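REQUEST FORM: STRUCTURE PREDICTION
Request ID: SP-0412
Submitted by: Lab K.M.
Chain count: 1
Length (residues): 187
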Amino acid sequence: MGKVLYGIRKVYVAKLTEENGAITYGTPFAVEGATGFSPEPQGDTTIFYADNKIYFRKEQNNGYEGELTLAVTPDEFLIQIMGRTKDSNDVVVENSDDRTARFALMFEGEGDPKNRRFVYWDCSATRTSREFNTTEDSIEVGTESMTITIAPRSTDNAVGGYVELTEDNAAVYNGWFNAVYETTASL
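STATUS: Completed
RESULT:
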């Protein structure tokens, strides 16, 4: 049976903190209501010709950029990641001085029985955009979208990874959303 992916679920983020050249992550929290994520590769390929052929080729991996679409952006994301505040009346307040935080993004791509689980280690997000429409004969559910920029992590240039369930990695796979996975590969 071939491998296929056709959905996104179990989206989690964990706030990233970088101090003195070291990166740590907060506890991952769920970001419910994901309807799509479309990361596109960023970077160029440098090609140098000599002797009438490609003499040198260098791929520049600058991570990804893409739209994350949600039914409604959860308050926890707006507060922890987008820097908003909640006042004593439970009003979430956006201020022009809000400072956004970097974060790890984790999710599961639904599909074949192995359901890949992904992590991107160093992400940032733009403010969400949303369209409000009048209700006509039927209800059209609106969504919010934000641009997610995925950069190579400053400490080791790691961009992202994924895991599929095997007999040997069940503990890693089953605990994927409990903490941000740290790679054992030498980068």
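NOTES: The CA atoms of residues 117 and 176 lie 7 Å apart.
Reviewed by: T.R.
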